[in-house]
Structure formats: C-alpha cells, structure tokens
Amino acid sequence: MNYLGIDLGGTNIKGGVVNEAGEILREASRPTHVKNGPEAIADGIAALIRELEQGETFGGVGLGCPGTVDDESGEVLCAFNLNLIRYDMRTAIEKRTGYRIRLGNDANVAALAEAAVGAGKGAHSVVVLTLGTGVGCGVVLEGKMLTGYTGAASELGHMVIREDGPQCTCGRKGCFEVYSSATALIRMTTEAMAQYPDSAMHRIAEESGGVDGRTAFTAKARGDHAGAEVVRTYVKFLAAGVTNVINIFFPEVIAFSGGVANQGEALLAPLREEVRRQEFGTAYVKKHTRLIQCTLGYQAGVIGAALLAKD
Ligand SMILES: [Zn+2]
C-alpha cells in the first residue's frame, strides 16, 4: 500500500506518493498562493491529491505544515507565513477529497523521515537541526515524533543560549537561532568584514555576488584569519545549543540540514571537537551522539508526511 505525503510551504505545495519502504514513486507540486487565503490553500492541496491519485487509493494522506499544528484536533493553530490561524485543515481536506489527513509540523515530519529512512536509519533516537533562515528542529525518540501536549514541542531553536543576546523573531533575546542560523552566520561574516578590510572574505563575497553562508568557510579554507575566526565563533555558539540538545535527549544521532550543513566536514569536524569539550560526563559515557549530515534533502518533508499517515 502507498501513502501520500504533502509538504506545505510558503511558496509551493509539494506532494509525493511514497511506498512502504519510504521511497517516492511519483511527485508533483503547485504554487501555494498564500494571498488567496486559507480556502484557496486547501483547494490547492486537494487538487494536488487528485493529480497524484491516478486511480490509486492511498493508505493515508499526511500533511507537513510550518508553524504549530495539532494532529489531535486536525487544526493548524498558527502558521504565520501561510496566514493560517486556528484553521481546521483536516475538515477542509476531508470535505474536498474524502481523505482524513494526519497533520505534522514540517520540521518534525522531516525528522521522522531522516530517522526512518535517512541519516538516522536504524538509530535509537534522532534529532534533526536545520540551519537555514532560522533553526528548525525535529525530535524522534524510539521511532516516535515528539510533538508535546498539543503539537508545539521541539522548538529547540528558541532556547536562550545567551541572556540579553540579539533579538529573536519569537520575542526573546539570545535564542540558539539568532546565533546558529544561516542568517546569524551571514551577520557574523558581515561584521567581521567591516572589522577586517584586508580579509579575503571581501573578494570571495564579490566573486559569488554577495555575502552568504559559505563566505567565511571559503575564506578559512584559503587560510584567511578573519574567516577562520568567524567559523570558530559560529561553531562555538552552535556547539552550545547542540550540547544542550545532547544533555536533554542524549540522542544517538543529531543530523544537520539546511544551507550551512552543506559545508559537511568543514562544519562537523570542528563542531564535534567543541561539543566534546562542552558535553556533560563525556569521560564516562561509552558511546557518543553522532553528528552527521542529513541525506534526504528536500524530499524529507514529503516522505515524513507520508510516514506520518502510515503511522
Ligand atoms: Zn527565539
């Protein structure tokens, strides 16, 4: 039996038919058209379901959505970038298609996919951290997605790692996210460039059409002192949050996705070293949390939503 996974984003709605093994058999996407309102979004999801059906009856349909969702009531409680507030998505989709969807937060279902068939396959417990515009997070403990009381758990990006640090979008200051997102890395890079006019980062940024999450890493690889310093500072903050995650969950695997994670070992090797320094009781545990890269890429959201429907 196959399952349908849908990844609802601010720009596109992506869908895929996924088999029991977690493989995508066919996929499709269409624009979200947020400005047309919630009912139009539901219309788009229903149209995508019909497009992918092709005479097949699915074992279930799962939907990954940004923001806070409640799988128990079937509501999207708040997804600000989609203008969905307390929207009964389950009823809306059931009315249109007959399918009673399962609902999950997009980062949570992506973590479910990485845990089941991606970077964390076979692991006891997996945390996925997405280092993008913000810091997304999903926690899967013994195969089960951690959602909390009404779906709002796993917001690790909003734990404060430095009191009175820079302002976060959530209202607090000094969150993990304001130090460890790609946005934070770009801010640190820009600040260092202003401080070091001779740094190789200036030429590197010029060559690639502007400062981005790669600028400091490229400069470090070319032996640039200021670039290396930016990477060191970024990794230090990232390690603070990652160590907190380890101290709370002690997962077997923490897998990284998002733009900054594309650095691979250039990021992970110094991160492991710094985390080892900060980790609690590190001298006594026999096995350590493995810090690795995610493997499913953009497909994680669709696969995870389908796996949720299978659950
Ligand atoms: Zn925050």
Task: Please explain how this structure is put together.
The protein is α/β, with parallel strands linked by helices and 311 residues long. It has two domains: 3-111 and 299-310, Nucleotidyltransferase, domain 5 (2-Layer Sandwich); 123-293, 2-Layer Sandwich (Nucleotidyltransferase, domain 5). 39% of the residues lie in helices and 22% in strands. The chain has helices at 38-53, 89-97, 106-117, 177-180, 182-195, 201-207, 215-221, 225-249, 265-278, 299-310; strands spanning 3-8, 12-18, 24-31, 61-65, 68-70, 75-79, 84-88, 102-105, 125-131, 135-141, 144-145, 253-257, 290-293. The strands form three sheets. It has a five-stranded mixed β-sheet with strand order 3-2-1-4-8. Helix 3 packs across helix 10 (299-310), helix 7 crosses helix 8 and helix 8 crosses helix 9. The longest helix is centred in the last third of the chain and has 25 residues, at 225-249. The radius of gyration is 20 Å and the shape is globular. The chain starts with a strand and ends with a helix. 49% of the residues are buried. Bound molecules: zinc ion.
Keywords:
binds zinc ion; five-stranded mixed sheet; 10 helices; 13 strands; Nucleotidyltransferase, domain 5; 2 domains; 311 residues; alpha/beta
